[in-house]
Amino acid sequence: MPAQETALTKSLDGILTHRKQSGLPVFSVDGPFLSSPPDFFSNDYLSLSTNPLLRELFLRKAASAPRLFGATGCRLATGNGEEYRNLEERLAPFFQSPDALLCTSGSVANQGFWSTVPQPGDVLIFDQLTHFSSCDGAQLSQIPKDMQYTFEHNSVSSFKRCLEDVLKKYHAQIVQGTGTVFVAVESLYSIDGDFSPLEDIVQIVEELVPEGHAHIFVDEAHTSGVLGPDGRGYVAHLGLGERVHTKMHTLGKAWGHQRGVLATSSTVRKYLLNCCKALGYTTCIAHMDIHVLNCSLDIISGPKGQELRDTLVHVVQYTRTHLGNALRHFPAEIVSLTLPSTHLPDDLDRAAAARRAELKSYSPVIPLITPRAIDLADHLVRRGYNAAALVYPVVNVSTVRVIVHAENTEAEVDRFVETVVEWATAKMQTMGREGQHVEEVSGEGRGR
């Protein structure tokens, strides 16, 4: 039955119409649905969500489990149980942390932490591309906006200047009182697939901030299960486990399921349970999730997990090489794998960039940068791929984000590369027929 139009629905329809007329995508999740395309766009990095071993382990465990379904209540009431704490006690040492708190999702974990843990008098410093869930949490926190700072994305020199300015302005209040400088970065940024200069950031914090007055938070959503010994993440890969205070690991990407976990101190865990309504007063995750995550952890931390990570690195290297070779003859106004060059003002940034470049073969996120992202995504969808364009205001540089997985074959990569080249060649030919000069084609601003 068609819904009656109201003032509200008319207003909302108008906004969506304006969005479409402005060239921005208006998404729908109502179909059509692609059958079984090769996966080059999901976050299922290790292909665990379709892995028969995970399915077998879970079904075996489920057959003998006394409970599978709803928890029936929040963690502070009837929803708690021994199996929840047992999983947290497995995850805490795995992530090299004193304790752990399961959350309904990674986004909820971020928002819950940042809206609750920082106290009046504390200062927040975020990378400017930090995930929206952390930024939203900070906006809900007790920290006024004039005590929330951002630094240029992945710029060590910008971070150092920002931290020095903060300490100059708030030094007495931080050192003489109970103030804390919170620093938030991500391990791998999911749009551009670039790693954070975490080693440099940790070192600068330890050099400049008096001991006991800093708290470093790393969002490991896109490196959990993928990097580090036994898939423990980027922090473990760099050997910084005891020097990073809180790590957020999403369990819905490489882990092949859903949910999130905050690996942190026992005090922070207890405080969140008692003071964060989003974590303490929501129905606890289903018993089935606990069984799946235990099975995922068994695989990720075992020989099969290492095999999948090794395979993923090979696929990443193969894809980067073949895409790079195929697209190098096209101008950036059509498509490129390289973000616009950023001026590196000093040795700090140059050295950090060189170290991050060595890690590129571990990043399964490969952005196809093009001012025609919507057109490219439409072409890929017509060829059977589940592609989507990322455009302003989500990003400042239009992108179709490619993500490779452990189960992608070289033949699948070859076909995908051919499909992208087919589109780029057609764009070049169209521009030639219209008498356009490539360098005159305009697109969105190139900065991120």
Low-confidence stretches: 439-448
Overall radius of gyration: 23 Å
Mean pLDDT: 90
State the distance separating the first and last CA atoms: 44 Å
Q: How many beta strands in the DSSP annotation?
A: 12
Strand content: 5-15%
Task: Report the helical percentage.
Answer: 40-55%
Give the count of helical stretches: 15
- What does the largest sheet look like? 7 strands, mixed
What order do the strands of the largest sheet run in, or round the barrel if closed? 1-9-8-7-4-2-3
Order of helices and strands: HHHEHEHEHEEEHEHEEHHHHHEHEEH
Based on secondary structure, the structural category is: alpha/beta
Describe the structure in your own words.
Helix content is 43%, strand content 12%. Strand 5 and strand 6 form a beta hairpin. It has 448 residues and is of the alpha/beta class. The C terminus is likely disordered. The protein has 15 helices and twelve strands. It starts with 6 loop residues before the first helix and ends in a 15-residue tail after the last helix. Helix 3 packs parallel to helix 11, helix 4 packs parallel to helix 5 and helix 6 runs parallel beside helix 7.
Quick overview of this protein structure:
The chain is an alpha/beta fold.
List keywords for this structure.
single chain, three-stranded antiparallel sheet, disordered C terminus, alpha/beta
